[in-house]
Each structure stands twice: as structure tokens, then as C-alpha cells.
Amino acid sequence: MDRSCDPAGGGVARLADVRRAVAEYDRPATLLAALLELSPAAFAALAVSAESGRGLSAVGPALFDLLGIVRVYTKVPGHPPDLGRPFTLRGGGSVRDVAQQVHRGLAGELRFARIWGPSAGFDGQQVSPDHVVRDRDVVELHFQGGHGGR
């Protein structure tokens, strides 16, 4: 499709081209592909419809991914994990960061953790406080003095 340039010199799609693309395509995925072709810079895009609700379930996970947010679940030793309320960290966060969110006062007493999920070599792997967690890991914290993990 034809592109024109704005006065600042950056490539932009002409409004007529966008209107033509909308008129020519009736399927959202095809329309999204046309929009991405016309856009001057690469950016993340999702096809969603507030009217029909199609694609809305993908918005939350996409935002977490784009923002680099990691969800980490905790568990108490001998109990199942609490999958209802994840702790959220920036990507690159460690087990120590999880402990800090769970209990600031006990975070300094963290000895090790057991971990299940994408960052574990195997389920229940014992890791140091510096172990980097990944999205959807389950962490069982173990503190000095026998304080129960979470």
C-alpha cells in the first residue's frame, strides 16, 4: 500500500489507506495484519473487540509479558500451593525478592527455597535466595530458626 510522509519526515500511513483497508477486510486478523503493514514502526498488537468480547482474555497476559512482570506463587511446606494470589515481581527477580514481599521482617533470615516450575531443574529443587524466578514458579520458603515457609 502507498505510504506518505508527515512533515517531520517519519513514515505514516495515509488515512485513506487505512480506511480502504478497513473497508476491504472484514476479518479482524486480516485487518490487524493490514494495520501492522501500514504502521511505520514495529509494535505489539492484539486484535480485540469490546463489542463481542473476542480477544479480551489475551490482554492481561500480553500486558504482563510486555511489562516484564513475573507471577510467583507460594506454598507452605506440606500443603498445596496458593494459586489464587500470586506475588508479582519484575523480570529478573529472585527468591529473596519473593521473601521480601511475603514478610519483610523474615526476609533476612531466608536460608533456601524449594521451587517448582519453569526455573526449576526438577520439581522441588532446593535453590539459594539468589535464584532467579520465572513466571508461574511455585516457591516454598525456608527460614532460619524453623519459621514456617510460605
Could you give a quick summary of the protein structure above?
With 150 residues, this protein is an alpha+beta fold.
What is the CATH fold-level name of the largest domain?
A: Ubiquitin-like (UB roll)
CATH class of the largest domain: Alpha Beta
E-strand count:
7
**Quick check: average pLDDT?**
80
Structural class: alpha+beta
Distance between the termini: 57 Å
CATH level 4 superfamily of the largest domain: Beta-grasp domain
How many helical stretches?
Answer: 5
What is the CATH architecture descriptor of the largest domain?
Answer: Roll
Detailed description of the structure:
- This protein has 150 residues and is an alpha+beta fold.
- The protein folds into 2 domains: 3-66, no CATH class; 68-146, Beta-grasp domain (Ubiquitin-like (UB roll)).
- 28% of the residues lie in helices and 25% in strands.
- It is built from 5 helices and 7 strands.
- The protein has helices spanning 15-24, 28-38, 59-67, 95-102, 104-107; strands spanning 3-5, 11-13, 69-74, 82-90, 110-116, 125-127, 137-143.
- The strands form 2 sheets. A 5-stranded mixed sheet has the order 4-3-7-5-6. A two-stranded antiparallel ribbon has the order 1-2.
- A hairpin with an 8-residue loop joins strand 5 (110-116) and strand 6.
- Helix 1 packs antiparallel against helix 2 (28-38).
- The radius of gyration is 23 Å and the shape is elongated.
- Mean pLDDT is 80; it is low at 1-11.
